[in-house]
Amino acid sequence: MGNCGEILSRIFCREKNTNVRFSLPAVCFVWQIAMIVLFGIFIRYDEESDVRKWIEFKVSHNVTSDIENDFYFRYPSFQDVHVMIFVGFGFLMTFLKRYSFGGVGFNFLIASFGVQWALLMQGWFHALDPNTGKISIGLESLINADFCVASSLIAYGALLGKVSPVQLMIVTLFGVTLFAVEEYLILSLLHCRDAGGSMIIHAFGGYYGLAISWVLYRPNLNQSKRLNGSQYHSDVFAMIGTLFLWMFWPSFNSAITDHGSGQHRAAINTYLALASSVLTTVAISSASAKRGKLDMVHIQNATLAGGVAMGTAAEFMITPYGSLIVGFCCGIISTFGYLIVTPFLEKYLKLQDTCGIHNLHAVPGMLGGFIGAIVAAAATEEVYGKQGLIETFDFEGDFANRSVLTQGAFQAAGTCVSIAFGVVGGTAVGLLLRLPIWGDPADDNCYDDEAYWEVPEEEEETIIPILAYNNHMTRKHPDISESNFTVEQS
C-alpha cells in the first residue's frame, strides 16, 4: 500500500511543467490525421454541393436556375456566424493584460479542430444515410458545426488563462461529443425548437465550462492576481469582439430557421433584445458606482445577454415589445451577476470563472430556454394561424397531434437536459483534466502568454505608468470614488 501511495503521490503531486513541445504536436498531428481518415470514410457532398447530384436535382425538381441552390440563401448567415466564432469570441477574450495571444490563438485552435469533429458527430446523429453509411454535408452543416463549436468556446471562457492548449483540445473533443448527444436528445427526441441555441449552446456550454472550472479549482490562484486584470488597450480589443458579436447575433439566431417569416422574425426579435439589454446594462453599471462611472466588464459582456436569452424564442411570435422586455430584464440580471454573483461563486463555491460565462451564457441561456417554453405554451391559433403553428413548431409526422401546452413542457424539459449534460459532463471532463500530465501552468504562472507563446520583448523603458484594472472580475474597492484605476509602475 505504501508503494501505491508513493506512486499516486508522484503522479498527482509533481510540479507543473508547461513544456508541451511533444504533447501538443502529437495531439494536433494524430487528431488531424484521424479527421482525414474519418472524413474519407464518412463525409460526402450533399445534393446541392455535388455537381452530378445538383444537375439531377434540377432536372427532377424542374429547377431552371442555380440561384435556387441553398448556398445563396444560407451563405450570408454562414459568414456572419463564422465571424462571430473566429473573431467575436476570440477578441472578446483579449481583455487580460498578458493573455491576448492565448485568447485569440487558442480560440482559433479550438474552433478549427471543433468544426471538423462537429461535422462528424452531428453527421452521425442527424445525416447518416443508413443505406450508404455516408454523411452528406452542405452549407447548413457548416453553420451547425459552428454552433456546436460555440459551446466549447463558451466553456473556454471560464478556463481562460488557467489551462494548457492540450487540455483545451480535450475540452473541445468531449464538449463537441456531449453537444451532439444532447442536441439529438433535445431537438430530435424531445422535438424542442431552439433556433438560436439558448438551451443547447449557451446553457450547455456555460454549465459545462463552469463545472470544469469548479473541479479544477486553484486555491492559490491569487499568486497570479497581478495578471488577472486588464489594461486600457486590452479592453479596447475586447470591445471589438463585443461589437462583432452584437452586430451579427441576429444572424446567429436566425441562420438555420425556416425561410420566410420565421427567419425574418428571428432577426428582428434578436436585434430588439440586444438593443434593450445595452441600455439596462449601462444603467445598472452606472448606478452601482459611487460616481456613476461605467465598468467596461459590464459593457463588454452584459450587453450581449439579450441575444443569448432570445435564442429559443427568436422565431416565435413573442412580439417586438416582448423582445424588448427580454433584453431589458437580461441586461439587469447579467450586470448584477458580474457585480454580485461572480464574487460570491468564487468565495463560497470555489468556482473561478475568468470571463464570467455564468452571467453571459449560463443564466441567460437557461432563462432563454424557459422563456421559449412559456411563449410556446401560450401560442394560439388566433395569433399563428393553424398552418403557422404547424410550421413554427413542426407539428408534423409523429408530432402532428402535439398541443402547444405539451410543446411548452418539452421545451422546459429540454432546458433541464442541457444543464444536466453540462454539469455532469463538465465534472467528468474536469476530473480527467486534473491529471498532471497536460502541461497546465502553475498557480503563479496563469494568465501569462509566455507560458505557451513566443512573446516579443517590450521596450519597457519607454512605457509610462500603466492604467490597469485592479481585477477584471472583482468589484472595485468601495472606498475608491475618484477613479476605478490604479497607477502601476512599469
Q: In brief, what are we looking at here?
A:
With 490 residues, the protein is mainly α. The chain has 17 helices and 4 strands. Helix 8 packs antiparallel against helix 14 and helix 10 crosses helix 13 (320-348).
Number of strands: 4
Spell out the helices and strands N to C. Answer: HHEHHHEHHHHHHHHHHHHEE
Helix content: 55-70%
Spatial strand order of the main sheet: 1-2
Shape: globular
Tally of DSSP helical segments: 17
What does this structure look like?
The chain is 63% helix and 2% strand. It is mostly helical and 490 residues long. It has a two-stranded parallel ribbon. The chain has a two-stranded antiparallel sheet with strand order 3-4. The radius of gyration is 23 Å and the shape is globular.
